[in-house]
UniProtKB/TrEMBL annotation, chains A, B:
Organism: Herbaspirillum seropedicae (strain SmR1)
Protein name (record): MocR family transcription regulator protein
Protein family: In the C-terminal section; belongs to the class-I pyridoxal-phosphate-dependent aminotransferase family.
Location of the HTH gntR-type domain: 4-72
InterPro entries from the UniProt entry: Aminotransferase_I/II_large (IPR004839), HTH_trans_reg/aminotransferase (IPR051446), PyrdxlP-dep_Trfase (IPR015424), PyrdxlP-dep_Trfase_major (IPR015421), PyrdxlP-dep_Trfase_small (IPR015422), Tscrpt_reg_HTH_GntR (IPR000524), WH-like_DNA-bd_sf (IPR036388), WH_DNA-bd_sf (IPR036390)
Amino acid sequence: MAVTPLYKQFADQLAASIRDGVLRPGERIASVRIASQQHKVSVTTVVRAYELLESRGIIESQPQSGYFVREQPEAPPKPALRTTSREDHPAWQESTEVDVSRLVLATLKTIQQDGTVPLGSPYPNPALFPSHRLAQYAGRIARHASQSSVFDDLPPGHPELLRQIARRYLENGLKVDPEEIVITVGATEAINLCLQAVARPGDTIAVETPTFYAMLHAIERLGMRALEIPTDPQRGIDVGALEERMKTQAIAACMVMPNFQNPLGFQMPDSEKERLVRLAEQHQMPVIENAVYSELYYGNAHPSSLKNYDRDGLVLHCSSFSKSLTSAYRIGWAMPGRYRAQVEKLKFLNTLATPTAPQRAIAEYLTQGGYERHLRRVRRAFAQQRDMMRHFVLRFFPAGTQVSEPQGGYVLWVELPQGVDAMELYRRSLALGITVAPGRIFAATNRYSHFIRLNYSYAWSKETEQALKLVGKLVEELAG
Amino acid sequence: MAVTPLYKQFADQLAASIRDGVLRPGERIASVRIASQQHKVSVTTVVRAYELLESRGIIESQPQSGYFVREQPEAPPKPALRTTSREDHPAWQESTEVDVSRLVLATLKTIQQDGTVPLGSPYPNPALFPSHRLAQYAGRIARHASQSSVFDDLPPGHPELLRQIARRYLENGLKVDPEEIVITVGATEAINLCLQAVARPGDTIAVETPTFYAMLHAIERLGMRALEIPTDPQRGIDVGALEERMKTQAIAACMVMPNFQNPLGFQMPDSEKERLVRLAEQHQMPVIENAVYSELYYGNAHPSSLKNYDRDGLVLHCSSFSKSLTSAYRIGWAMPGRYRAQVEKLKFLNTLATPTAPQRAIAEYLTQGGYERHLRRVRRAFAQQRDMMRHFVLRFFPAGTQVSEPQGGYVLWVELPQGVDAMELYRRSLALGITVAPGRIFAATNRYSHFIRLNYSYAWSKETEQALKLVGKLVEELAG
């Protein structure tokens, strides 16, 4: 076996770090003395390694300042980070078992890519957010938050933000005490914590079908079982069907999105909301309510929440600012009713605390006012864009295509002609730089194999129209 | 039964919201029209309710602008949020079953209170952080991050931060590819995700004893069992004892803090680190390494990590900036070796993404340089303060008291004379405005009933000395 001298091994490792982009052209590398200490090799070894790298043109010494990484035009460094990786991306192609959460992450990552038409995105167009004002507040708060500490806003969270959230509910007709609220890292964390607070591994959780995938993931990850209850595209979960199932089966909890459900877009009628809560009371069954789209209504008044009908504290209401104000801050919350103490404790165990500065920036925004005006503008835009998206899908997609009629939010649920494989459509669209969300991710099984979800939050443009036309053509091909 | 008219019910609700501090003096309340829509009551009801509240002096109308909450000098509003609540605080006093995680949260919350001497804190003095520079970067980044979106830094995280972390490891003698890293909400999330990636409910996890409570909480929360392995105050976990146990018992994973363990402060010798990793290899047992204190060494060189000896990718290395740079940003990470794909996926399911702005601010700080200089200053301060704390504990506490000799970090482990009840000491100290961390929180059982942990990261002052003297007196009383 050939022996590689120590100095050469050391040089090779350093060269690899430069190739990997860990050290970049122009950056200084450790001095001989420091490198010798840190890597526990002799000074001579380091000197010989540096000489070797210099002779190869990988580093250069500059008098009085030390060694620096040279520009390497001949071998362009690979990007510091892939946007989609081998594991992340089409893992589902190689396996018969679809890993839905991996597919979702892959879908999201394609949206990150420049030039992709983000029809598959679950998030609203960030251009609609009052980002400039929010950024001003965030900037000011960050600059003044010197010596801020994790202790500042331990669970339940920043007091002024709790108060502003409670005030906002009050304006919308729901009396909330700030102490009922626990701030979380987005609604994702809120849903996870609420589910863990009310159910145990092996328990059965009733969900809508189709349903928002993050709810399925939370159930699966905690070792619970999802029971999909028939869901009407206009009226939401079939409370009667749920009641029937409860006669023969133990159901530990129910998770629903009563307003502008993702992906169906319905708003449950008040009577159905109340009926669901009464059923829950009767069986003392907790209900997790995902309310992230509630602010994005097209009607005249803010829709009610299950929480409005909750007399026993059985409703665990989860929401966030990610769909209505900013998605980058990751600020959500739970109002867990009688489970508040458990959820606060789980929050502490899961992530200890939510970063302080984003909480304060949003609190400041809400204090300064203008949120309602911003929301009115967004709701108007979404209502118009819904009509555009429906119109063009029905025009460009083949006969047999059906589309939902969302009453709020910004996603359209599209049923393609029978036999069209939405996963194949997803792949072919992606090859054209267009993302769509395949029906596969909205159920535990592949029952929505010929459905897709489209995002209409982006300002309507020629490009959108062109993208829809292309997807329509692909659907036609696949419909054969 | 007396019937309360609708307008009076509505007025009472609004009055309660004002009393609770949800609406504050000087704030405008909803117009009659809006309130009528939102609360689904008639305009007449709202008008009569507002008149009633006006007659009671709770609100006032201002011409052309609407109704406002009046100052209410006679009934001072209660604080918007208690700092310690009934559920959070001395719940442990009322129960024989100690809820350790609740006790920890209660301890942390007492530290928040003004004037408390934070000897029980797990966090370093924030005055030592380069907060001003960090805040400048954060401010600049926040202002320029308009239209930032959750897509910007999906797991694994912000690319430049990943690169800077990898570079820092390289400087300390560990070759890391940025792609090995997953950014998390503090090390707390990293530990939770790593544990879930490698073990299942019911599994046994080997830990040090005493051990850092967050590790015990993660084990308990996931329905696993902690197996406490004897741990030497100077050399760390007894690898031989662990090996013995593995002969008779299935151990799914091991969780340790090899450098400056909380609470013991030891640095495992390199030979022991290597021995532990080889044992893990032999049994293909994953090892979760908590490295949050590794940067805070008092010796001449950065200590090695278990990761330095890891040939098979079995070490899941977790760390954060919370102990060395800023605790308020909540930025941590995992390098999960061969479990990277699972941890990235679990991160996505747990909190979707880590907020972007704090990641970018820290990346900018690391790019601009000065971290090592800051750390040198902190290490020097901690080494001096360790000596002060040891000196005064030995001077003020009764004979029979023993103290640890930390080689890094900023906490002292104190064994009180036998029979001293550290929980009672915790309570009595708190009554004097001094927190100490009771031994109870560092084990699954009460085996450290006469131990406390003290934080020496704060600049030494007369007040510290006075506090130690008082605690020493209490110990004397309790020693009877």
